[in-house]
């Protein structure tokens, strides 16, 4: 239905026009009447209307003024004007202002009115189709441009652009500026236990989409270009403002890294460590910058979670083969801990201890930097109080005087961990398996019976065991998990509410909204629109 408004200072004229034709049978509906241009204008600014039939001569604001003022704010609204025999100059002015056509009041008949309305409706439809086509073309162009930019940034990072001319040509094709100034790489990765516990493998692409959106938002008004190099690895190539010295350039990059970390924590509720390279002369040397940042990130295990690691601080350590080997084993340790593969954890701990025993020519502080994260990972895997535990270990590290103290400490930590794992009851191990199963399958029609069958337990026994070990019942645990995932999608994607509901395991949109409101305190739409929640 096309929405029509009638504007005339004579009530009988408005009634006559409204009763002239069967509006709805012909695809039109009269949504509003007004007695002068001012009232009509105020209503149009607050409401939706397609066609306005207006008299020319009216008090307060005449038809020509109405057409002109509405045209400035809502140019899509179409006007048909009413006139008398002596209004020709006014009619001409109205047509110049944008009116589609005019009627002589005393000669208007149903056929004439329907004919003019049909002609205007056809024009409206044509304009809408053209707008939609233009919008689709613009969307396709935006998508193509995003791919061109992504390819360019990856080629720069991998060192596949060698000449200044190719660099400038590709930057122009990608519609990116190439300002003067040095460049640094800021790198981070998503992974580890925090991510593994919250996202299934088939959800990682949603997480990446959300992260890229946040990065684009954080850098859109800066000379910085983010790109997802791998599914779990992100790089921001950031220009340093001209005139900044070495220290100030790194400080600028550090501020950007801190703001991105804060945004990731606020919107996605996880913490990442970031690494920053030394400044390089231009984007053409992004490969060197990227390698430096990745080398620094490889030692992130030696720093508290959420740290910013500068290549300048670790470059005296990172070049050795031993450092690379230890970093590799540390990543394996985290991987196996995430998956509760106890035998592999034990073997990897032995490898790390052996590598540290063979490490020569480094200070005691270096041994602390390499060894402390082992204990940190082990503590995290057991679900302890990480900050308190680390404070206790740092005090113990202050007592170290020789390398053998480090090795002995590691042996002790390893033994304590193995003792703790052996003391785990069958019940707690079962619940860990249940939680992993729930996190992998919450988007499907997950039931208590299905989890119990997976664990080869009776539903009633599993229900009581789950409540005993976790302090909450199965339904509450699964519901809270689903709602937390839906909150992330509401904040970071353009998915519809019903789509998000289905993604997290609710086929019925109304039921999903009811559960969401019960848990969060507001509807999904309210949560999506309110940035303070």
From TrEMBL:
Signal peptide positions on this chain: none
Top-level taxon? Bacteria
**GO MF term list:** DNA-binding transcription factor activity; sequence-specific DNA binding
Record-given protein name: Response regulator
Locate the 4-aspartylphosphate modifications and list their residues.
Answer: 55
Q: Any idea where the HTH araC/xylS-type domain is?
A: 432-530
A Pfam family it matches: HTH_18
Q: Where is the Response regulatory domain?
A: 3-120
Q: Tell whether Cytoplasm is among the UniProt keywords.
A: yes
The listed locations are: Cytoplasm
An annotated GO BP = phosphorelay signal transduction system
**Is tRNA processing tagged as a keyword?**
no
Gene Ontology CC terms, in alphabetical order = cytoplasm
Q: Which UniProt keywords apply?
A: Cytoplasm, DNA-binding, Phosphoprotein, Transcription, Transcription regulation, Two-component regulatory system
């Amino acid at each position: 239905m096309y929405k029509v408004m009638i504007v005339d200072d004579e009530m009988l004229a408005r009634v006559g026009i409204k009763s002239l034709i069967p509006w709805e049978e012909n695809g039109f509906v009269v949504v509003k009447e007004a007695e002068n241009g001012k009232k009509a204008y105020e209503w149009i600014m607050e409401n939706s209307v397609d066609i306005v039939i207006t008299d020319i001569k009216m008090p307060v604001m005449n038809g020509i003024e109405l057409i002109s003022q509405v045209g400035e704010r809502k140019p899509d609204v179409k006007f048909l004007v009413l006139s008398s025999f002596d209004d020709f100059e006014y009619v001409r002015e109205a047509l110049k202002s944008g009116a589609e056509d005019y009627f002589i009041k005393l000669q208007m008949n149903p056929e004439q009115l329907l004919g003019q309305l049909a002609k205007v409706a056809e024009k409206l439809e044509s304009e809408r189709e053209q707008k939609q086509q233009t919008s689709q073309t613009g969307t396709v162009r935006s998508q193509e441009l995003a791919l061109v930019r992504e390819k360019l940034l990856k080629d720069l990072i991998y060192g596949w652009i060698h000449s200044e001319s190719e660099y400038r040509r590709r930057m122009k094709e990608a519609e990116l500026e190439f300002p003067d100034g040095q460049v640094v790489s800021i790198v981070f990765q998503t992974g580890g236990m925090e991510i593994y516990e919250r996202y299934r493998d088939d959800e990682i692409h949603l997480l990446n989409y959300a992260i890229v959106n946040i990065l684009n938002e954080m850098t859109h008004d800066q000379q910085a270009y983010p790109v997802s190099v791998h599914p779990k690895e992100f790089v921001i190539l950031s220009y340093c403002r001209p005139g900044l010295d070495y220290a100030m350039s790194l400080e600028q990059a550090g501020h950007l890294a801190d703001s991105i970390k804060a945004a990731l924590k606020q919107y996605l509720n996880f913490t990442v460590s970031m690494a920053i390279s030394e400044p390089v002369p231009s984007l053409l040397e992004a490969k060197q910058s990227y390698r430096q940042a990745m080398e620094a990130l490889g030692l992130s295990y030696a720093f508290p979670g959420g740290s910013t690691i500068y290549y300048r601080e670790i470059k005296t350590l990172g070049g050795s083969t031993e450092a690379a080997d230890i970093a590799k084993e540390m990543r394996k340790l985290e991987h196996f801990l995430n998956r509760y593969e106890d035998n592999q954890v034990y073997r990897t701990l032995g490898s790390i201890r052996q590598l540290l025993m063979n490490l020569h020519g480094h200070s005691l502080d270096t041994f602390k930097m390499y060894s402390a994260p082992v204990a940190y990972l082990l503590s995290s895997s057991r679900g302890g109080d990480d900050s308190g535990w680390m404070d206790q270990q740092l005090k113990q590290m202050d007592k170290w005087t020789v390398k053998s103290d480090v090795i002995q400490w590691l042996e002790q930590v390893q033994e304590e961990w193995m003792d703790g794992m052996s003391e785990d009851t069958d019940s707690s191990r079962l619940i860990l398996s249940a939680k992993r199963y729930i996190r992998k399958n919450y988007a499907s029609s997950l039931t208590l019976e299905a989890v119990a069958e997976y664990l080869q337990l009776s539903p009633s026994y599993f229900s009581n065991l789950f409540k005993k070990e976790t302090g909450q019942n199965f339904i509450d645990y699964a519901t809270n998990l689903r709602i937390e995932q839906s909150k992330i999608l509401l904040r970071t994607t353009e998915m519809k509410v019903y789509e998000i509901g289905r993604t997290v395991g609710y086929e019925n949109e109304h039921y999903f909204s009811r559960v969401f409101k019960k848990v969060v305190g507001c509807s999904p739409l309210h949560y999506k629109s309110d940035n303070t929640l």
